[in-house]
Structure prediction request, 109 residues.
Amino acid sequence: MWIVAAALAVSACGAQTPQEQQAAQLREVADAQADAIEAEAGNIVAGMQAEAEQLRQQAGQDGGYEAQRLQVRAEAQEREAKLVKKQAEAKARAIRDAGKARASALLAS
Prediction:
């Protein structure tokens, strides 16, 4: 008997109002958008890091000023990749926060 009561209690807790469903959907959409931004940035960063590695390898083969120039370009590429990642994280965080805020506003109304 208590199993039936527990099952009913769990199912009652799981039921969401239309507002709660819409709020959850707002958060999910924001999360999906943020994930897409992070994934795209990850691809860009990976390409930039690969290019920096190629420059480093080429610098190792060359000598003198050309090697130094290539090393500087590789370092700049890596620094730019870090900025791209940081910017994407900030955008993703802002989108998630906005989704949470819209969801909270919807539930508060």
Summary: The two ends are 39 Å apart (CA to CA).
